[in-house]
Amino acid sequence: MKKIVLIMILVSCTMLMFAKNPWLGQDKAAHFTCSTFLTYWNYGVAYDILGNNRPNSLLISVNLTAMLGIAKEYSDKKITKTGWSWHDLAYDLAGIACGLVLINNLR
């Protein structure tokens, strides 16, 4: 099961990188991948290093990753002037969900 989940993630990211429309593309693959990694990593820090219990670690992980995604979009709007993207946030949320799947299957 673990190998199937990882293979599905890799195939999905590869397909996203070559598409050219507002919902697909290299930027969306980066949002998805980074959110997946950050969710998994934040959980590890909260659980293994800080010693929180599982529910609190999940809550910390999801909230911190979501806040980072929102901060990135705010930065895009105010600093780089590329604009706020709801598409990017959707992929951030999908990455968070994928990170939770990985946490439940690999830890």
Q: Write down how many β-strands occur, each being a DSSP E stretch of 2 or more residues.
A: 0
Coarse structural class: mainly alpha
Taken together, the total number of domains comes to 1
Q: What is the count of helical runs?
A: 4
Q: Strand fraction band?
A: under 5%
Largest sheet: none
Mean pLDDT: 85
- What's the order of the H and E elements? HHHH
Tell me the span between the first and last alpha carbons. Answer: 13 Å
**Radius of gyration, Cα only, in angstroms?**
15 Å
**Low-confidence parts lasting 5 or more residues at pLDDT below 50?**
none
Helical content (DSSP H or I, runs of 4+): over 70%
Gross geometry: flat
Walk me through what this model shows.
The protein has 107 residues and is mainly alpha-helical. It has one domain (2-17, 26-106). Helix content is 80%, strand content 0%. It has four helices and no strands. α1 (2-17) runs antiparallel to α4. The longest helix is centred in the middle third of the chain and has 25 residues, at 54-78. The mean pLDDT is 85.
